[in-house]
Records
---
Amino acid sequence: MARIMVGLSGGVDSSVAAALLQEQGHEVVGGYMKNWINDEGIAGDCPWEQDVEDAHAVAKHLGIEFRVIDLVDHYRERIVDYLLAGYRDGITPNPDVFCNREMKFGVFLDYALSQGFEAVGTGHYARRRELADGSAVILRGADPNKDQSYFLAMMKPEQVQRARFPVGELLKTQVRDEARRFGLPTAEKKDSQGICFIGNIKMNDFLTHYVKDDPGEIVDLEGRVLGTHRGLHLFTLGQRKGHGVASPRDGMAYVVVRKEPESKRLVVAYEDQEGSGLYSSTCLVGSLSWMNGARHGVLDAQPRYRAKSERVTVVAEGDRLRVNFQRPQRALTPGQVCAFYDGGQLLGGGVFEVIEA
């Protein structure tokens, strides 16, 4: 049995994770990661105070120690600054993936280890398995509709070694049933949405608060001006709504197909318009992170959360990978994370850097 600190977020998943680990005989302590308090008045709901109360209520119900760990400065440095810098540079970062590596299994794990804990437990829908050689791997969660292994793709081997994902063995409906069985105060609490640890704040509202408007033209593939925008950082490739340009063709909306930082132009086209560049088969992926050694050849790749895995051929090019998809992919986006799998086993991931035809 191990001494485990569980990241209690105030939600049902982490609450059940704590209860299951305690039931298995582990010594469990709950820790709320205080990462964001929205003291700058950004529009939206940042319910951290309620979440702390709910997490504390769960710990009290289970009879375990509860701590609030202030990681606000670390979060701003490792996640918020990374997020804002990416958008200012014209890419679309993925804060949720890096939040897991840098916060939950970064500074939070470091804190836990410094306090004598052996592992950190979370409410992720993913499974962890130990191999005969003592190393550990991550598998997709048992619930295909809730699988969150994609968000763990950038974790390091030593982080996987210290991670515990007890609810990953269950379906979401079973997690709710377990919460009721344990009598947890969060059993009926709705799942939270939004940016990792920030709450129900829309990304555009968050970016508008921190990134100055940098207006430019909205053009079609021929360069005809169709409108104006407030800043390229407010758009992402493949976006169908919110650009404000009405299509003259019934049932065919304009889609964002390119951002041109130098000219500040936002390029839109129809979904299947020839030459739009919306669909790509080849890309370069960098900032690689592998859990059990680098892999090449034929793998499965998941280009975004909720996307299906696709067969790819992977070839090393220096410290990056050239990834060739067997089928063209829609709106591969610089800054987003590509997760690599071997069947149901997560191998690692990297960041899209260059998208080719």
---
Amino acid sequence: MQNQNTFKIEFVALMASLMSIVALSIDAVLPGLPAIGNDLGVTNSNDNQWLITMIFLGIGVGQLIFGPLSDSFGRKPVVYVGFVVFVIASYICLSTKSFEMMIFGRVLQGIGLSAQRTLSLAIIRDSYSGDYMAKIMSIVVMVFILVPVIAPAMGQLILNYSTWHTIFYVNLIYGLLVIIWFWKRQPETLAEEHRIKFTSSIFIDGTKEFFKYKDAVAYTIASGFITGSFMVYLSTSQQIFEQQYNLADLFPYIFASLAISIGLATYLNSVWVVKFGMWKIAYISTIAYAAISLLYVVLFWSGINPSIEVLIGFFVAQFFSVGFLFGNLRALAMQPLGHIAGIGAAINGFISTVMAVPIANYIGSHVETSVLPLFIGFSLFGVLTLFTFLYLKKTNKTVTNSAL
């Protein structure tokens, strides 16, 4: 483990770049969803949401494979295997003429990308712990957020001069460059003596160990609530701004501005987390997340959309809260799992993603003519997350220093 006071810019940038392969594969495609649907014979525009949510399903499933393998064979080899799977899946997406096969390709892309997503967290956990780990994760997420800022605009720019296929090619080239950087510059963080012997029961044993830690389980469930409600926005944002508000040309810029609000929050979190503690910041942010969404539901219960300025104002406030939650909830869940960081990150990601996908698909199916269902989802899962914090606060006899 690195010295807790050691901060390496290249390490943070590399971990953020690994995770950003995932973000680019999701967000750059958003402007191209109608074109992909048209080419593949999709008649219901709501079905295009599956191209976003299904990649998350693949990420959730893939983590269960790559996380345990990394605890036995090291982080770096498993990252390479995941990228090879991503390349194969991208070929399927590029060559298919079937919407169903495209969905399969997106699931397989997610499985491959899960290695980068999961193992970047495991590598951070190998290297840091406590509130400083939360600080590093916040900075990584902040840099990672830069991708959603530019990805839709990049995707739209590509569509102006080429087809949606080019977006997939650009993702592949970017991913290859990051993997080469990772190969050249990132040392293996899991020492031989800390590896778990690979057996057929490694996943079962790791799962049993994970569920021994009540806090890890509870914060993982909370991550699922927040991820699920936020995933609804990701999968419906193109519909909301292009169809409900007729702002197709401005969509990439609106999407970018909202991503910036998350990025600002993650930056502030990286500054404040060591001083105030990840628990307190996450708890206050959960209250804000629930309160903002409930206020929208009360004000616009009729289902009539507000002006675009009001909607963006609510989104900015909502996602500012999210920026404090993503990194801290993961860090809180990972804190007791240092001895099984690989499978711990895998189970954390799997549970939160498997929870998130049906949440996103169900709520997203109701976001047709109004944004209200989206904020109802925010409200419901914000309140459930708050209840999770209150439950842990009540049942824990003492609060650790990181919670004060």
---
Amino acid sequence: MKTQQFFWFAPLTLALVSGLTACSKAAPQAGPPQSQALPVQTMTVSSAPVPQSDEYVSTIKSRRSATMNPQVDGNLTRILVHSGEFVKAGQELMEIDPSKQQATVIAQQATEQQKLALYKYNQLQIDRQRKLFADGIISRDALDQAEQAFSNSKADYESSIATRQMQEKELGYYHINAPFDGVVGDIPVHLGDYVSPTTLLTTVDENRDLEAYIYIPTERAAEVRRGLNVEIVDNSGNSIEHTAIDFVSPQVDDGLQGILVKAPVRSSALRNEQLVKARVIWSTSPKPVVPVLAVTRQGGQTFVYTVDDKGGKYFAKQQPVTVGDTVGNDYAVLGGLQNGEKVIVSGTQFLIDGMPIMPIGGAPGAAPSGAGN
């Protein structure tokens, strides 16, 4: 029995010893996991034309804008348009009660007819008197009196025509018409209001030919000139129109201490008296640019991640930079980067300084298909 027990334990012992030996040999092979490189897209920094500009508040004004005031007194009997309506030249906008003036015109027309009848009668008389005088039947004095009566009646008739025309023209003042094609502005008056030549009825603005009024500080007086490029932008910084200065005032505005310059604008998105921003471009020079998506901000500082090549292994390097205005989808770089450096343009939200990366394409700066250089 003892002999059998010895041989039964012996294989078990050998198996345990073998298992422990195998574990002790496999243990050194286990270690901390290696950090996996993050695939990223990169680009090489290069220069692009960057404008040097300043922004100013500008007012859009129409080259043709009319303030509508009546030329006669009276009560408004009709308002035929509403604010914002487009009207044609000559279209009637409002009517002031014309009844009194209409009566005056009718009375003057009757007077004119009376003068005409007398003039025609005297015209016949003078023809007869001239024949009688030629036949020696009447004297020179009688002929002269007939001539005088004819001349007086002719003058009275002509004067009556002029008076009637004047009254008819004044009757036209009771109808307020658009002076040109344009858009009706605010209408502060109402039906029945008594108006006079000092009353503002409305405005008519032609939105076809507009100008941007820009006041340039006197410090820039030496640089202001016709032909300078101007970009009109909205409050969000989006470009509305590109134009150029075509007028420079020879005088400085006393109140604003600025020089008025004008630039034509034709965008349908602009309206008379609208306030916009005008970006005056003084010059253009080459500067390094990087995509907007490559720039990150931390604590008020701007950074980009560049490619740090360490013997064929690539790491992300956080690089502080100073950026200027945007140029399309890029930032102008004012400091911190040089042409030829490689910047990471994708996955920047996952990067930290010193993190291993794998530039797509197998080498830093190899832009993927479709990526800009």
---
Amino acid sequence: MIRIIFPLLFGIATLLSVPALADQATLAHDAPDSYTVVRGDTLWDISGRFLRQPWRWPEVWRLNRDQIRNPHLIYPGQIVVLDRSGPYLSIGRRIGGPLYEKRFPQIHSEEVDSAIPSIPMQIIEPFLTRPLVVDDAKLAGAGTVVATETSRVFMGAGDTVFAKGVEGSDVWQVFRPARPLVDPVTNEVLGHEAMFLGTARVTGHGRPATLKLVSSVEEIGVGDRLVVSERPEVFSFVPHAPDAQVEGRLIGIYRGVVETGRHNVVTLNIGSRAGLERGHVLALHRERGSVVYKDDEGGKETFDLPQQRYGLAFVFRVFDRVAYALVMDADGPVTVGDSVRKP
């Protein structure tokens, strides 16, 4: 059990630290006066009970920038209270029967992993620590499996492999550089998507080093690469729109399919260089193509039809020039080549 001291979820002491927007968040037509948080909820789910635009959560909580990037956490059993005059949301509790809104710090004891996440963690968890994108520099600095025990072609969990370039750490992730990530506009290679193979632990240092394969999801062989294992992070970023306009494309869907839908992971051709950060929400737009209009006199005109906005995606991992996002809402199929931009 860990004690977490927090002054009323997301810091009510800093109310009004976000400027009011010209267009206020819109309440859902059946928004309740209050809601008791239960295990399995997400910040997006809870926001969606009150708002038509769940990603506008920070506005109704009146969060400042630091709170959006590193919010305090909400826990099962707490009561979210709606003030319709804003609309505003805050945390309350029931004493006796009537709803009583807290306005003082409280000590809260909970298991760390019971806090409510921003989005469904069971979907994105494998993507938070595994090497997803490797550029030329990271690839050049990666370790390499140079031999397997008893000269077997492929190895799995419990087997021993030998590798070079694995100094400085005892725990490694094994991957295989897969398809190049190509920008559909410039045809430039943005990096290489890595195929995660498993994890390994150094049992003997040297050149080559000896490693035991701790886990494997695919067979591992000579030539496969290794990077230092990343520590898992608590993901609690609140959904929010980018400060500036961003324009990008879907360049891939996890597992190589060309279409997907809600609660699936997509790859974007923009990253931190374009100002993207974890927690950003982007609108999904599909191309409608072009049409040729023929008038009565035989003349022809070509019209590019406007794009159609059809969904939202939540960015949860960002690299220099590539990012991964989870499709949160979609009206129809999500397709490689679709556009993303600030909602």
